[in-house]
Amino acid sequence: MIFMIFLSVFFLPFAHLETILREDWGGEYPARRAPMTTPVQYFVIHHTATGRCFNRRACSKIVRTIQNYHMKHRGWSDIGYNFLVGEDGNVYEGRGWRTVGAHAPGYNSKSIGLSFIGNFSSKKPNQKALTAAKELIRYAINHNKLKMNYKLIGHRQTKMTDCPGTALYKEISTWPNWVKRL
Ligand SMILES: [Zn+2]
C-alpha cells in the first residue's frame, strides 16, 4: 500500500504517453494512404459524439466501430481522425502522423485531427483524457510534427457543426495556442 502511494506520488507526473497502435485496438489496415507533409500548422479537436469509455477494452471497441462506420458507410480509406483519446488516458492511433486525415475538409492536409471519445456538449472529458491530449500536442511539437507556432482550433471553427461539443470547446479555448480566428 505504501509502495503504491509512493509510486503514484513520485512517478505519475512523469508517466509516458501510451499510444495504442492499430494492431492493438484491432483495427483494419487502411485501403490507401495519402502522405502528409509535416510539420503542420493546425491541431483540430473533435469529439466522436459516441458513448464515453474508461478502459482500453471499451475504448478499443468504440474506435473499431467508428473505423467500420467511416470505411463501410462513408467509403473512406480509413478511420477519419489522426488520433483519438479515451477517458482511460490512452491515445489511439488512427491515421497517425504521416497520413492525411478526413476530419475537417479544407484543413485535412495541414492539420492533425484528434478526437475525444464521447459526447462533450454538456460535460468536458475527464482529466486523464485532457492530460493525454496535451501530451500528444507536446509530443507533436517535440518531434516536428506540429509547427512551434501552431494554431489549436475546434472542428466547429471550420464548418457548421457542434463538434467538439460546447463543454470541450470551452475547455480547449483556454489552452495555449488556441486561436479565435483561423
Ligand atoms: Zn469533428
CATH architecture classification:
3-Layer(aba) Sandwich
Total discrete domains? 1
Estimated share of beta-strand residues: 15-25%
Summed up, the helix count is: 5
Overall shape: globular
Mean pLDDT: 93
Low-confidence stretches: 7-15
Report the count of strand segments.
Answer: 6
| CATH fold name | Lysozyme-like
Write structural notes for this entry:
It is a single chain. With 182 residues, the protein is of the alpha/beta class. The chain has a single domain (17-26, 35-172), classed as Lysozyme-like, CATH 3.40.80.10. The chain is 30% helix and 17% strand. The chain contains 5 helices and 6 strands; from the N terminus they run H-E-H-E-H-E-E-E-H-E-H. It has helices at 2-11, 22-25, 56-73, 127-142, 166-172, and strands at 19-20, 40-47, 83-85, 91-93, 111-116, 146-154. The chain has a 6-stranded mixed beta sheet with strand order 1-4-3-5-2-6. A hairpin with a 5-residue loop joins strand 3 (83-85) and strand 4. The protein starts with a helix and ends in a 10-residue tail after the last helix. The site of zinc ion has 4 residues, from loops.
